[in-house]
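Reminder: ligand-aware prediction takes two inputs, not one.
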Amino acid sequence: TEINLEEHFQNKIDSEIRIEPKDWMPDAYRKTLIRQISQHAHSEIVGMLPEANWITRAPTLNRKKILLAKVQDEAGHGLYLYCAAETLGVTRDQTINDLHSGKAKYSSIFNYPTLTWADIGAIGWLVDGAAILNQVPLCRASYGPYARAMVRICKEESFHQRQGYELMMKLAQGSPEQKAMAQDAFNRWWWPTLMMFGPKDADSGNTELSMKWRIKRFTNDELRQRFVDVSIPQAEYLGLTIPDPDLKFNKETGHYEFGEIDWDEFWKVVKGNGLCNKERIETRKKAFDDGAWVREAATAYHEKRKLREEQ
Ligand code: FAQ
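Here is what comes back for the chain with Phenylacetyl coenzyme A:
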């Protein structure tokens, strides 16, 4: 019966036994995984755009090679994640349609513009740093295909984070203009990065069940706090000023206390009204339309080979 199935399912989760595509799972578990994994895939794919904006303007050949490789990695991450979502019974066309129609979300962070070269450093250091903190626990997510995809993704993200920090270090130790550029990028990316972890726990409707099902292992606020605690010493090492007048270290708890996040801005961006939301979706739709001939050619070639094999 349904009750026994559900009990058996939860027992498996509680004993750290992975759930695999053909196993029984509650509808709500399937639904929330499709939601999270496809949103995650869209974030990787839309997340290529702000950085791709600088590939042609990278200051040296070496920086261009590094950035190209990073953006390509993100395409790969998106593809693994779309495949993981497909194992739950949705098609690629459905998920991509949901992105293009505005039904599916993707991370708020990718709706901010990359104005200077220092933004590429800030994204690598902060955005990839936040992504790693959020994703390392997802390597232990209860759903097998998602957890396994995350292992490789995290290895690549950690290289991305290091290249970003190294880029920031070069700028921070450079000319006064370069240092000012690094500070300006830090000022603009710090708060949006804190928003990547999602709403406060009290406003996070999905957390309770996702924790019970061990999709999430930590809450939004726990991961955000950890990010602040590791990033502040990194900013200090760079000699940058943290754009938060309320920030202070609490010796008793061993944690940094930080100012209030602008939640109105967060929801505005999540609802589609950030600086770049419209441009990002337009760009994705155009890329999809421009690539139609490739998909058609691949399908035609597949059909032709099948016919030949049958002869
Ligand atoms: N932006 O109840 P919760 C990357 C939505 S890293 C937009 O707390 P949940 C790598 C949320 O969907 C970025 N929407 O939700 C990279 C929900 O709405 P829904 C991607 C957000 O799922 C680096 C509602 O608010 N990483 O791409 C955001 O328990 C550099 C209530 O929220 C992932 O996706 C937001 N920031 O927790 C690529 C990681 N936050 O769906 C290129 C996997 C929340 O009910 C360059 N995802 N919402 O309509 C997760 O860990 C979780 O889904 C959270 C949200 C933590 C993001």
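The chain has 13 helices and two strands. Residues 35-36, 39-40, 43-44, 47, 74, 105, 107-108, 123, 127-128, 131, 134, 195-199, 204-207, 210, 220, 270 surround Phenylacetyl coenzyme A (CB under 6 Å). We will return to this case in the review session.
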